[in-house]
Amino acid sequence: VVYDRKNMTYDELYNHIVDTQSIVTCCIDAHFTAFQILSPKFLIYYDPMNPSLRLVRGESQVQHVALYFLLKCNYGDNVHIQENKNYYVGNSSSELQLTVYRLWKKINTLSLSNVPAKWISIPLNLDKYLFINCKSSHCDMSTQLTGNTCYFQTYLF
Q1: Contact assessment for residue 75 and residue 62, using Cβ atoms and an 8 Å cutoff
Q2: CB–CB of 24/2 below 8 Å?
Q3: pLDDT given at position 28
Q4: Higher pLDDT, 156 or 63
Q5: Cα Rg for the chain, rounded, in angstroms?
Q6: How far is CA 84 from CA 91, 109, 142, in A?
Q7: How many other CB atoms sit within 10 Å of the CB of residue 41?
């Protein structure tokens, strides 16, 4: 589980969470969310304010969503981006490094709804998972209505 800042460049961190299929927990404005990259082409996203899990498909969309959360939560080495622009936008830079730099330049004005991704809601098999069912739809989980702090939610998750 990735839940704290790492001393890695964002492209290294992205590759790490892909290789290890780490669950990444994130707190943005005291709001808890989590995601996991199941493969470079599939990302699953959990938000306690949404009654279902959501999926993103496609390598480019997965990169954009994952990097958005990693950058928004300051999990990588931001100083490296500031001091090594050529690493991200130079002739030998990878598409992943270019994406990191482009997102980093506008991360303070970007919200998840602006990230280029098509979300697919995933129905839950609530016989297998421990979530609290929603009153209005027993196939959905209940949404978060409490004021728990983000750190406590990370601990519970």
Answers
A1: no
A2: yes
A3: 81
A4: 63
A5: 16
A6: 13, 22, 45
A7: 13
Check: pTM over 0.90? Answer yes or no: no
- Three-state secondary structure call for residue 78: helix
Residue 50 corresponds to which tokens in the numbers above? 């949404």
Beta strand pairing call for 23-28 and 42-46 = unpaired
DSSP string, 94-143: -HHHHHHHHHHHHGGG--GGGSS--EEEE---TTTS--PBPSS-TTSBPP
What is the length of the chain? 157
Backbone angles phi, psi at 96, to 5 degrees: -65, -45
Residue 117 pLDDT greater than 90, yes or no = yes
- Which residues make Cβ contacts (< 8 Å) with residue 148, sequence separation at least 6? 32, 156
Which residues make beta-bridge pairs with 110?
none
C-alpha 154 chain-centroid distance: 14
Per-residue DSSP letter, 26: E
Collect all residues with Cβ–Cβ distance below 8 Å to 61 and sequence separation of at least 6: 43, 116, 117, 118
